[in-house]
What does this fold into?
Amino acid sequence: MSLDSTMDKVLERRAEVEERLSQAAEMTPAEMANLSRELAELRPVCEQIELVNRLTTEIADAQMMVDEACDDAEMAEMARVELDELSDQLPAEQDKLQLLLLPKDKDDSRNAILEVRAGTGGDEAALFAADLFSMYQRFAAKHGWKFEVMEVSETGIGGYKEATATIVGSDVFARLKFESGAHRVQRVPETETGGRIHTSAATVAVLPEAEDVDIDIVETDLRIDVFRASGPGGQSVNTTDSAVRITHLPTGIVVSQQDEKSQHKNRAKAMKILRARIYDAERARIEAERAASRKGQVGSGDRSERIRTYNFPQGRVTDHRINLTLYKLDRVVAGEALDEVIEALIAEDQARRLAEGVD
It folds into this structure.
């Protein structure tokens, strides 16, 4: 589809949505909300289309003035200056429009479930997992997002075997989805008397929060076990069977939840995580099919890949997917400079999709 026809279709769609919204009395609240959201997304795109169209018209008018002012040198010069300025401006505005016209991930506007797990490296890996979890918590606070800790399995020395949180806010998944993968740390542990640098790892998974309408979970596909919650080291922290383990039999996905004293609340939290994991598995399957048919793809996006290294002795963070290195490790870990890495990843993704002509 040509750029012009795409632009026309977008403008036509805005007109349709505006017309539909003018008949609000005939719509359900859900339809109204969906159309209002779509109109909000269409507006910046349509404004950019109108800017490009206006520049194109003004360039044609300036060219006509240049052609017709052959007997008036001063007028011809003014028209040429205007033509040059407009011609210089148009390509940049067309590039902005191309980015705005890129198809959006339908899950970008969703909230997310964050899962961080210690990998290889023993206690140091668990401490690093806790550092990553705190980094995302501070990053969420910076963006005004709500960060709700769902479950934390501690090691007893301040480390996390695994930790899960729900992050609620504007475009959470859009900004965090590239964080999924294996994160590596290189530093001297506090317990290391010889000053040797240790390497350990933790994995991060960012899942789009699924809604009830997204995933149809059949009760007979679930095996639900209840047990007594336990704390670090296995000591009992509850005298009732309030902890819940849910197994989704068709996929084998297992979710446990024990942070709440109420079995009902633990089950609700576990179901939220289970729904997100099933939804994410389906997303991954579709993405794998697309990737298999795509030529020249860089990286598979597999979560087993090492995506980033945090080198404390050198104070640097390196994202291996885009060969980006920042000597701002303290600010990245504090959640302050993480945006710089994320913005670069988003820009790289946009450039790749433009080059590949992704529909």
